[in-house]
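Need C-alpha cells for this chain, all 314 residues.
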Amino acid sequence: MKKLIILLLSLMVLAGCSTTSKDMIEATITPTSTADNVSLNILAPKGATALPLTQVIIENEHSVTTVDGSDVLQAALVNPDPEYDIIIAPTNLGVKLAAAGKTSYKLIDILTWGNLYLVGPSDALESGKEIALFGENAVVGLVFEDLYQDLSMNKTYYPSVAEAQAALLSDNADVALLAEPAATATIAKAKENGKELTIIADLQQMWQEKYGSSYPQAGIFVLEESYENNKDSIDMLISEIRSFVDEANSNNEMVVDIVDQVGSDILGVPNGNIASKTWNRLNLDVVAANDAQEQLKNFLQLFEINDIEGALIK
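Here are the C-alpha cells for all 314 residues:
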C-alpha cells in the first residue's frame, strides 16, 4: 500500500437527497491529483464501513463520498445514470436489487460481519420502556427483529445510527441499538453527563449462538461496466482496502493518527482513539463474495432472497 500522504484534502459538506424527514449529510473527498490508475468514484455509509477507506481518502487518488443512512445508497444503486464505480451497502439491499435486475451493481466482496450492540443501563430491557432503533427493513433491523422477536418494548426506528444515538443521549429512549464505534462513543458521552450506560447485548454473539455463523452485514458493490473497463484499477483499490483492514486488525493503534487526519465529518466516528479502541468489535474482514456464498445464501434467505448467483461479480 502506498504510504505517501497528501496533506491537502478538499472537503465539502453537502446536503444529500433523502426520502426521510431529515436531511442526509454527505461528505465528499475529491481527488486533487490523478495517479496512473483510473480515478474511481466511491460511495459509502459513515461509520464502520467508511473506516476501511481511510488510507484511500488520504492518498486522495479517488473521490470518496460518505453519507448517513441508507436512502442515498439505494438511490445510487438504482440510478439509471450511475455516478459511482463502487458503492458500499448492506448486503440485502444490493443483492436484492441485483437479483431482480434493478441495478447494474454487483457484489464483489463482503466488508463487515456485524457490529451491532444494544446500549443502555444494565436493567433497561424491560416491558414498556423505549428502544431506539435504526436500519428498518435492512440488515440491522432484520437482525434485531430476528433475535428479539418477543421483546415487549416500545420501538422507534430512526433514519440513521446517529439519530438513534441522539435519542438515547437525550433520554427519548431507554435503550438504543447502535453500531460500533457509535456504541462506545455514546457510552463515553453519557458518562460526561453523569449517565451510566453499558453494552448490554452483543448481537453478533447472539447470532452466532442461534445460527452457528457470522452474518455478512455490508459488502462492496461494483458497477459492472466500470469493472469491465477498469478491472485492474478496481482490483488494485480493493487490494489496498484489504491490506489496510488486515494491518489494522493486527495493530489497532495504527488507525489513531490516520483517522484523526481524515476527520469525524467524513468518517462518521468521533476520533482515532475511539476507532482504535473499538476496532476489534467492528468485525471488518474483506472476503471475496464468491468465497462466502454459503454464508450469503443462509443469511439472505431470511430476507426471502434465494437467488444470489446473478448478483455476484464472477
